[in-house]
Request: fold
Amino acid sequence: MSQTGALLDKYHVDSKERQDAWFVISDLFLDNALDEASIEHLARQLAASPFTMEDLAYIYESEVAPVLHGNLECVAGVWGGFNREEITGLIGDRIIARKAKGSTKGIAIIEKFKREYVLGQTIYDWQKVLEATGKIRSA
Reply:
């Protein structure tokens, strides 16, 4: 098993660390633009997490984005901040349902066709957050 899988198994769906990462990453899906200060704030929170950069990318792409990307398509989407309990429930339920179906791979083959669409509006900011996270961790 890869290090990514081992850490994600250790910090299971109901772990505070995993839920903290979901909540931080959820800011990318708010209906507003992120400035450099916001990017740095997100990066500092993620840098303090126990997750590797690969784990964080997996959490972003396979857990948070499929659930929250629709907010960016709403005329009146959430812009002030998501409700932590609500997104924790939505994301956790999705992961549990996927495992029950026997699909533990994050993005199933059919969903790969949707990847560009789902990540398209946030990928630029996400790349900036990951880059800043890496710089913080290596400092």
